[in-house]
Amino acid sequence: MTHRTRPLLAAVLLAAALTGCGGATTGATDPAAPPAVAPAAAPAAPATAAPLAASAPVRVRIPSAGVDASPVLRLGLAADGTVEVPPVSDGDKIGWYTKGVTPGETGPAVLIGHFDTARGPGVLRDVSHVRTGDEIGVTRADGSTALFRVRELEQVGKKAFPTAKVYGNTTRPELRVITCGGELTDGHRPDNIIVYADLVG
């Protein structure tokens, strides 16, 4: 199998903070109950699954968060060098950052979705229900499913976004799922919630 390496980190160094949500969210959710996760980490899953060949994601399932999203949007870089997020009109969909690897390949595959938008709750509105050990399934265009197990959950301010940790090269197939968090401030949420997962099947 050919090992593909892409310059993920170089492509996003200008994007010091990936927002994971776009557009004003005022009134979209109850600001008294902001999305949040308790920081948690588990040991990396044993390398029981071999890396997969490249194949674009077409469906994402996160049972603990009530997510079953299809089709998967394709995201790149915006004109200002920041990572694109799904448009507000597609708040119920998850996007895949195409300048990275496909889910199941060696490296960090990145998925991005809204917690909420001005139009209402987004696809990742229940991200706070996710726990370490939970599974994430990504159906791919070749008909295979890449199964990941959550290893870590992190909530960080957007100004302190861990770019190298999220996009830096890895020696094994990994997944990141990114959305917004924190209490609404001037119609926006100040934090990112990041789910880290390892390929297990």
Unreliable stretches (pLDDT < 50, length at least 5) are 1-17, 22-34
Q: What's the Cα radius of gyration?
A: 15 Å
How would a textbook summarize the main sheet? 10 strands, mixed
Number of domains: 1
Instruction: Assign a percent range to the helix content.
Output: under 10%
Strand content: 25-35%
* Beta-strand segment tally: 12
Rough outline: globular
Instruction: State the CATH architecture.
Output: Beta Barrel
Determine the structural class based on helices, strands and strand pairing.
Answer: mainly beta
Name of the CATH class: Mainly Beta
Structure at a glance:
With 201 residues, the chain is mainly beta. It has a single domain (8-199), classed as Sortase, Chain: A, CATH 2.40.260.10. It contains two helices and twelve strands, in the order αββββββββββαββ.
3D architecture notes:
The chain is mainly β. It has a single domain (8-199), classed as Beta Barrel (Sortase, Chain: A). 5% of the residues lie in helices and 33% in strands. The chain contains two helices and twelve strands. It has helices at 8-12, 163-167, and strands at 40-41, 57-62, 67-69, 73-75, 94-97, 107-113, 116-117, 120-121, 135-140, 145-157, 173-181, 191-199. Strands 1, 2, 3, 4, 5, 6, 9, 10, 11 and 12 form a ten-stranded mixed β-sheet that branches. It has a two-stranded antiparallel sheet with strand order 7-8. A hairpin with a 4-residue loop joins strand 9 (135-140) and strand 10. The radius of gyration is 15 Å and the shape is globular.
